[in-house]
Amino acid sequence: MNRTVTIEVKQLDRVVIRFAGDSGDGMQLTGDRFTAETASFGNDLSTLPNFPAEIRAPAGTLPGVSSFQLHFADHDILTPGDAPDVLIAMNPAALKANLKDVPRGATLIVDTADFTARNLKRIGYEENPLETGELDGYHVVPLNLTGMTVESVKEFGLSRKDASRAKNMYALGLVSWLFQRPVESTITFLETKFAKVPDIRDANIAAFRAGYNFGETAEEFSVRYEVKPARMATGTYRNISGNLALAYGLVAGAQRAGLPLVLGAYPITPASDVLHELSKLKRFNVTTIQAEDEIAGVGAALGASFGGALGVTTSSGPGISLKSETIGLGVMLELPLVVCDIQRAGPSTGMPTKTEQADLLQVMFGRNGEAPLPVLAAQSPADCFAIAIEAARIAITYRTPVIVLSDGYLANGSEPWQIPVIEDLPTIEPNFTVEPNATDDKGAPAYLPYLRDPETLARAWAVPGTAGLDHRIGGLEKEDKTGNISYDPANHDLMIRTRQAKVDAVARSIPPVEVDDPEDPEGRAKVLVLGWGSTYGPIGAAVRRVRKVGGKVAQAHLRHLNPFPENLGDLLKSYDKVLVPEMNLGQLAMLLRAKYLVDVVSYAQVRGMPLGAAELAEVIGNLVEETEGIDDDARHLGEAAAALKHGEALADQNGHTPGLKDPGFKTEGAR
Known about the structure:
The chain is of the alpha/beta class. α9 (242-257) crosses α10, α17 crosses α20 (613-628) and α17 packs across α21. The chain is globular. The two termini are 47 Å apart. The chain has 21 helices and 24 strands. The longest helix has 20 residues, at 198-217. The strands form 6 sheets. It has a 7-stranded mixed sheet, with helices on both faces. A 6-stranded mixed sheet has the order 3-4-2-5-6-7, sandwiched between helices.
């Protein structure tokens, strides 16, 4: 007689799930599919893929563990979460590598198939942790997922090895049931992905459905969980990663300028996906060149700009080093060029699949001679779209290379993105020179390639082959207006200062720094937290935590790093303390101290992972206490803020969300 299982449905406002397994277990695919299900359901979400750099690390080892973390909620969130509420571990190595991040009381769903004495010993376990009491305090659900998968697909006649590869879909089905995710999109995905291999297609679908049905009938689960959709501003949304958003933004920028886009790039982690995505968009007048090396890639892009296109090159820190001379040539030629640096952990080869913010000083100063150029930084995966359009605007309007900083966290992470109306995007005017702009000594029409726009200081830009507009080009110093080769000391000084003035002029066309400093009858905050790039999410979440426990703190975020917004200096001097969190050893802090003579407080962590909201909240809370002279032993703002489990939730019942508006077309506030 079958036992009737009574299942309770428990309402949650947010959940953090982490899938972890061997790098061959398909954890990234599993996470991607669960994310797609969650996005289609309407939750706000943020993801953190984490995988080894090796193409195939030894199976069952700690270095070979791959994971995918997803934070989803019924309200606006900013980070993929500090710690998982649920860990799905597909082998002993995945359990050991991730257990340190899992708080007591969390759920562990563990595939027991590989918990053999041999496998345990190779990762340092003398005894089975499922049997020693080490996991007491967790809600442990040990399941032979591999065995159940093999049993569920045996009708398809696959070998045990091939059958067991579907265990990630079995696990996905189980977790989809547990959190009431829609399943139709995953089944459609599997039908399409494996359409040419019917047995594999049918086995994966069967495993997915079997996992879902197991949750429905198993006694191990007496509770299902529901996270309702988030409140969204009206519009059409999709889930998007930073690299995909960057690719779409580059195309949108070129389209709004009426220019062809030419990408010259060499594959490098974590930038390669931009090349992959742009190669699919030829119908939008996009040409992609996979060059033989980094130098050839940027050379092709700069050549395309000379020819009247929007030249783009993508790389990570090691490749930016190689491109530096050609970028400097672009500064001298004064041609539009967009350089995307998807930062990773360094130096040298470093940790290719880990994230970092340590290229800021390199892109600011890493060229010989005085070679200034604008530098922008995206702050979220969705913001990569907007920052790419802004980079195209500045590059074309001011005739200069522009560097866009993203990083591995933004590139691979994802969030909901409200798809913009194309007509609402800014129009960019190339303003090509199409006829002579001067006269020579004899009064005949002539072309002066370095004759400048008086407002932007951008030089004239003529497409090669335009009748009467022949001009010299090359890497030697140019004479003012004519572009002829010049070694004159006074001319060199003039050209150096003019190129700097042109970059400085960009500040007039960018918005002032926006500050979020909630009004308070007792006065404004004394502490400002200032970030750049991907620290936006952790800083925003940490600031929310501190405010929830009664701390007064202001927040601002920089997207334009060179030149800085015109109001930045006055802003910094208006606060008693300015905290600058970074994933480097304090590079922005150094620049701010040098330029504005403000002794900012640097908080620097370089671990290859995003900053944690809880640890940052503690740092901010402690600084607020110190600055405001709070000596009440009962308050301890930092400790209280760090301890908040639901620190990213809305501040009140009216849908108000503290924090800055994300300009990347993701609507903050009521969702």
